Amino acid sequence: MLRKPWGKSFVFMLLLLVLALSSQVVHSQEYPTKPVTLVIPSSPGSATDIFMRAVTSVATDYLGQPIINKLIPGGGGAIGSDSVAKAPPDGYTLLAGSSPWSTGLPAIEGRSKGPDDFLAVCRLNYSLGFMAARPDAPFKTYKQMMEWIKANPGKLIVGTPGPWTPPDMVWKHLMKETSTSFKIVQFQGGGEALIALLGGHIDAGPVHPLMAMPYKDTGKLVFLFFFDEKRHPDFPHVPTSFEEGMDARVNTLACSWRGILAPKGTPRSIIDKLAGAFKKMTEDKSAKSMLQKSGDKVNFLGPDEFAEVWRVEFETYKELGKIYKK
């Protein structure tokens, strides 16, 4: 008696597999069928908040659904990052990633979430910023500031957007390399640090170009230098960190990126669709106009290239953390 090559249970399992695969294909083709939430883990008015709102303002035209920006500040970005890492990997909850909470904190302190917990969707920009002082500070240039620090050890109060953020790394580097001492105050984002600087609660702090534009030529801030080899086109009177004699490593530490991250396990088809949509958003005339007015620009990288760059940065921060935590 001949036996049937396949039993009923095998055929049933095969049908289930076919249905599951078909469902996944249809799902990826239809995505998104509802609004997408983008968690911004920083304070209102921060450079990341302003940048992401400009880009996502045209999301419906290129993604087919609006992107809802949701602010979840706290923990230097760790709280918002953790919430997204735990979200379903279906493309409907994304993270506005950035060097501070996506590289610095997880690489150096082991908190927040990094490249082991997310998939890279795309990098939107890679930017440098200014170091500024309050107008009544006892110095007007970087060199004057360093002279004042040496003459008044421990008296300077500087701010950062949070622990192990690029500006925080810069201040730690300067303190170590110049054998000086001053107080570093870590805020919950660039917006809070800027408010403290404008209010005279700290003497100096970092200001992203996007956040610096409203204070250009107002006298409310003294821009000490710009972290780059070339002067910022909108602030031609402000010298660069290289002109001020700072070493190249400072610029490496000062750089900060902004990008889109998705929970680990998100289908590649969704990652690619999101990356394509965000690229078109950054090329949109309306979004570009808003970014240009705010002094920011786009430096787009796709999923694979961004993932590679992010991993290298992560490993670099781990090594630097061993030095600066001593």
Gross morphology is globular
Low-confidence stretches: 10-14, 18-28
CATH homologous superfamily title of the largest domain? Bordetella uptake gene, domain 1
The largest sheet, given as strand count, sense and whether it forms a barrel, is: 5 strands, mixed
Q: State the CATH architecture of the largest domain.
A: 3-Layer(aba) Sandwich
Count all strands and give the number.
10
- Report the span from N to C terminus: 78 Å
Rg measurement, Å: 23 Å
Structural class label: alpha/beta
When the domains are counted, the total is 2
Approximate helicity band: 40-55%
Subunit organisation of the chains = single chain
Average pLDDT works out at 87
Query: Treating each run of at least 4 consecutive H or I residues as one helix, how many helices?
Result: 13
Order of helices and strands: HEHHEHEHEEHEHEHEHEHEHHH
Kindly provide the name of the CATH class of the largest domain: Alpha Beta
Strand order of the largest sheet: 2-1-3-10-4
Might you state the CATH topology name of the largest domain? D-Maltodextrin-Binding Protein, domain 2
Strand content: 15-25%
Give me some keywords for this one.
10 strands; D-Maltodextrin-Binding Protein, domain 2; three-stranded antiparallel β-sheet; five-stranded mixed β-sheet; 326 residues; alpha/beta; 13 helices
Structure summarized in a few sentences:
The chain has 326 residues and is an alpha/beta fold. The chain has helices spanning 8-30, 47-56, 59-63, 78-85, 99-109, 142-151, 166-178, 190-198, 209-212, 248-254, 268-283, 285-293, 303-324, and strands at 36-40, 67-71, 93-98, 118-127, 130-133, 157-160, 183-186, 204-207, 222-226, 256-263. The N and C termini lie far apart (78 Å).
